């Protein structure tokens, strides 16, 4: 995994570990990604998740292999 995706992934994990879904409700990070817990996760984590998906998608796009992942 390119270093840009590793950084975004770590940022996502840190954000999720600070969310109410994990801290107050005691759910795992994996459970908090499900639809029923969407209200307990801050919008910041959702935007980081979208960035992570786009980074991962960029790894599979043949055009992006030559250009590299976009860094934000």
UniProtKB/TrEMBL annotation:
Signal peptide span: none
Coiled coil: none
InterPro entries in UniProt: Cyt_c_oxidase_assmbl_Pet191
Domain of life: Eukaryota
Transmembrane segments annotated in the record for this chain: none
Key word Transmembrane helix present: no
UniProt entry keywords in alphabetical sequence: Disulfide bond
Cellular component terms (Gene Ontology): mitochondrion
Pfam families (UniProt xref): Pet191_N
GO biological process, one term: mitochondrial respiratory chain complex IV assembly
Alphabetized PANTHER family for the sequence: CYTOCHROME C OXIDASE ASSEMBLY FACTOR 5 (PTHR28627)
Family: Belongs to the PET191 family.
Protein name (record): Cytochrome c oxidase assembly factor 5
Lineage: Eukaryota, Fungi, Fungi incertae sedis, Mucoromycota, Mucoromycotina
């Amino acid at each position: 995994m390119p270093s840009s995706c590793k950084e975004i992934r770590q940022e996502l994990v840190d954000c999720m570990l600070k969310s109410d879904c994990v801290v107050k409700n005691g759910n795992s990070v994996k459970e908090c990604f499900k639809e029923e817990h969407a209200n307990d996760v801050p919008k910041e984590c959702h935007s980081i998740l979208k960035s992570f998906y786009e980074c991962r998608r960029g790894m599979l796009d043949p055009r992006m292999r030559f250009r590299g992942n976009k860094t934000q």
